[in-house]
């Protein structure tokens, strides 16, 4: 369950945890509970002159929802699965997938990886059944080399949570998904429902006939921190049906 040491204030409409540490417990197939400790880097905690991480330094609500969905949906675990996270930020979703046994590659900008992702991998690695590796991927700039040179059928699952804030992010995320997923492969994308232009733009683009994906809304009735309602985020599953030219 989500530990109530975290200050989730729905009145701020911030959608993210407002403390320096975020504790998250996940039940794994062997019957034990894995306790994750996520260190955040909020803007007000940054030292003068340090690079600003934008939205990547904190745990966002949609990431909690997606992490909880993985726990509840993959009850037999993700052992031997190869999972890719896009825009991982603190990496919560990646650590939950790895706790379930997956071999995970989590990706973000070099600044975010150095500031929050890698320190959190190091802090939680010994608690995970699977593995997590960090890799730089800047949407629209990093050469994808189909799925980092492994081919578009390499990744069994791609995940992304709350990482589409502006409309231009939508096209970049969709292009990246097209570059790392082959026909039949799936992505789970968690989006904020609360009127963000990026979320709406992504849904429109991914749901179009030209996207190369079949999109469906996933039941996201999963346990969330007190004060938040399921209606605040949307979880969609994208299945690749064709490769784009």
Automatic annotation (TrEMBL):
Transmembrane segments: none annotated. InterPro entries: Methyltransf_16 (IPR019410), SAM-dependent_MTases_sf (IPR029063). The lineage of its organism: Eukaryota, Haptista, Haptophyta, Prymnesiophyceae, Prymnesiales. PANTHER family: HEPATOCELLULAR CARCINOMA-ASSOCIATED ANTIGEN, OS04G0645500 PROTEIN. It holds the Pfam family Methyltransf_16. This is Calmodulin-lysine N-methyltransferase. CDD domains: AdoMet_MTases. Gene3D superfamilies: Vaccinia Virus protein VP39.
